[in-house]
TrEMBL record:
Keywords: Phosphopantetheine, Phosphoprotein. It comes from Rossellomorea vietnamensis. Coiled coil: none annotated. Residues 99-174 form the Carrier domain. It holds the Pfam family PP-binding. It comes from the Bacteria. InterPro entries: ACP-like_sf, PP-bd_ACP. The keyword Phosphoprotein applies. This is Carrier domain-containing protein.
Amino acid sequence: MENDKINKIKSEIKEVLVSHSSVKDTKVIYNQNDNEFTVYLLSNREQVQSNFILGKILKENLPARVEKVVFRWIDNLEEFIHIKSENVDEEIRKTDGKLPKTETENDVLKIWKEVLNVENIGIDDVFFEIGGDSLKCSQVFYLLNEKYPNAITLVDLFKFNTIESVSSHIDMQTNKEHSKKEIEGIQF
């Protein structure tokens, strides 16, 4: 896309989104390699943050046809000011969300990327807001169960729907199982 068209679309995205009550301000970045717009949203903490609702609002109100938009919610004003002041409009930002901190988070991230066919995933992204559905959830469950047998149920994936939360749950379950086996191995 040419720069004038990109800038116009970015401006239109911002105009539509800041009119919503959950959004205080935005920074829109275009990733040319993925033909994708990433929208950093300074949230209004009193309002619900929903990628689904904002995506629907964009589809209904955006004059330009935009195929891929990724939302990144930011509660911290300082972090938002830093992002907003950066001149990163044409840079590629490979991971816009939080990065994995544990081995389990890294494993879950790899599985999500494989199943969802999405590169830019942060550990706080909600599975069902970045392309996940019940069929893909079943695929994730199968792959996680191969890696971490009996540590998670399919229902857990609906309850713990971020990489961070599902990884924490898996770690807790595997630690319980490990502790149980240690206790069973002690002879009295």
